Structures are given as structure tokens and as C-alpha cells.
Amino acid sequence: MKVPMLLALLLLGGCSLIQPVQPWEKGILSRPEMTFESDKLDSAFTEHAYFSKEASSGGSGVGGGGCGCN
């Protein structure tokens, strides 16, 4: 029982070594080729499909589903 606990602590301790993104590095991360949606037409089609199925618009990337219960 002690070995899995020790292993979990070691793995979680490794997460603390991650350096935060510096302000001067954020410009590189905001370039268009760094986005998850590389094709604007495809993402617009996917958003339209979700809109048609869910009967709600907007709200992509934020909590809530269009019912107004954020």
C-alpha cells in the first residue's frame, strides 16, 4: 500500500517542475498555426452542426449549453 502512494507522490511532484508561460512567449502561442482548429471552413461547419443539433448558438469554449444556466 505504501509503494503506490509513494509512486503517486513522485509523479505529482514532477508536475511542479513545469515552468509557466512567460509574457514574451505568449505571442508565439497566439499565432494562427498554433490553434486547434486549423481550417476555418471546417470549424464553421462543425459549429453549424452543433448549433443545428443542440438548438443553441454560441457558447463554444465556455460553460453552459444555451439554456441560460451558466
Count every helix, treating DSSP H or I runs of 4 or more residues as helices. Answer: 3
Low-confidence stretches: none
Class from helix and strand fractions: mainly alpha
N-to-C series of helices and strands = HHH
Tally the beta strands: 0
- Rg, Cα atoms, Å: 20 Å
The amount of helix comes to 40-55%
Report the β-strand fraction as a percent range: under 5%
Mean pLDDT over the residues? 74
What characteristic shape results from the CA principal axes? Answer: flat
Q: Summarize the biggest pleated sheet.
A: none
- Seen as an oligomer or otherwise, the chain set is single chain
User: Termini separation (Å)?
Assistant: 41 Å
Structure explained in plain terms:
This protein has 70 residues and is mainly α. The protein is 47% helix and 0% strand. It contains three helices and no strands. It has helices spanning 2-15, 26-29, 40-54.
